[in-house]
Design brief:
It is a single chain. With 155 residues, the chain is α+β, with helices and mostly antiparallel strands. The chain has a five-stranded mixed beta sheet, covered by helices on one side. The chain has a three-stranded antiparallel beta sheet with strand order 1-8-7. It has a two-stranded antiparallel ribbon with strand order 4-10. The chain is globular. The mean pLDDT is 95.
Length: 155
């Protein structure tokens, strides 16, 4: 499965420096850190959430889980729910586990866990089970203009 053209075009059009990292097939961000032999805190995992009545992408480190109570408090929202895989397929028209953190491609807002700001670069999904993208955190923030907060907890 090739990296979706819309992902590559989006990065190139916005003049974002990135590196493609091919790897063996993995289905989770944690498996990606094991495969690449890198610390899980530099792997950004992207989840689809329902925040009140809207959907949003949320990025946190592979070694963390989203604390839904913290998320609600930080962003002053009433309801937060992690979306099941079959709905990801339907809503984003992609295979579950291949979502990139580029909310603009899906017309979705992005939330970024503050812990990732400690990294210079992070590794994120390129839209396939066999490719990742290394990107500067500042570039990702500039590109997506995410809402940033501290909403994760260690696994």
């Amino acid at each position: 499965m090739a990296i979706p053209k819309k992902v590559l075009n989006y990065l190139k059009k916005n003049k974002i420096k990135f590196e493609i990292i091919p790897h063996r097939t993995v289905y989770t961000a944690y498996d990606l850190s094991q495969t690449l032999k890198v610390k899980p805190n530099i792997i950004g995992k992207t989840l689809l959430l329902k925040v009140d009545k809207n959907y949003a992408l949320v990025i946190t480190a592979a070694n963390k889980n989203i604390d839904l109570k913290k998320f609600k408090k930080v962003f002053k929202v009433k309801q937060v729910k992690i979306i099941k895989e079959n709905l990801i397929k339907k809503l984003l028209k992609i295979k579950p586990g291949t979502q990139t953190p580029f909310g603009n491609l899906y017309k979705l807002p992005v939330y970024l866990d503050k812990s990732l700001l400690k990294q210079k670069k992070i590794i994120i999904s390129a839209g396939t089970y066999n490719d990742a993208i290394k990107i500067g955190v500042k570039s990702l923030v500039k590109l997506e203009n995410p809402r940033i907060g501290s909403f994760s907890k260690k696994k």
